Amino acid sequence: LLDTTDYTIHKLRTFVTDAFGLTRSAGMTVTLMSFGFARGVPRDVDLLFDLRFLRNPHWDDQLRPKTGLDREVGDYIRTDPGFSEAFDRLLALLIFLLPRYRQEGKSYLTIGFGCTGGRHRSVFVTEEMAAALRKEDISLTILHRDLGVAGTADPAPGEPLPS
Q1: I want to staple 34 with a disulfide (CB 3.0 to 4.6 A). Which of 64, 122, 134, 142 is the partner?
Q2: 114-141 pLDDT, tens per residue?
């Protein structure tokens, strides 16, 4: 029986690690997740960035059926006047924060990038951010929560969001 009433999360982690002979990993599992706000904010996201300020490829009939994995969609998003500066600032923020979360002992960190439907802007930025962070020797995984989900397209103006 272990009374953990007065233990902080850090003290508890140290106790369990020491008591059971577990090795503490210096690493941290980083996941970049794209998602659509239309399907709700992911519960397990630690940092969330809303990309709905970027031009939406959904309103281009040629791009609507494509996704953020398609070059044409990425080219379209890059033409947004705010894209480059916003992306560079987000990258700099993450490069600043990630080592600090690791030093604090965080084992898992999920960074969410959201747009309306989770098919275009969030997917593109997630992929671009992953490539940029990997150049900084940051190991991570990518999850596109809503990319393969039917009905994730952005609603037409005046159309209700899916529940």
Answers
A1: 122
A2: 999 999 999 999 999 999 999 999 999 9
Look at residue 152 and tell me whether its pLDDT is greater than 70. Answer: no
Please give the full DSSP string across the chain, using - where no structure is assigned: ----TT--HHHHHHHHHHHTTPPPPS--EEEEEEEEGGG---TT-SEEEE-TTS--GGGSTTTTTS-TTSHHHHHHHHTSTTHHHHHHHHHHHHHHHHHHHHHTT--EEEEEEEESSSSSHHHHHHHHHHHHHHHTT---EEEETTTTSTT-SPPPTTPPPP-
Nearest to 143 by CA among 99, 95, 111, 107: 111
DSSP letter string, 70-82: SHHHHHHHHTSTT
Place of tokens 């106790």: 15
Q: Which residues pair with 108 in a beta bridge?
A: 29
Residue 44 Cα distances to 23, 108, 109, 121, 141, angstroms: 25, 10, 9, 20, 15
The residue among 155, 152, 130, 156 whose CA lies nearest residue 141 is 130
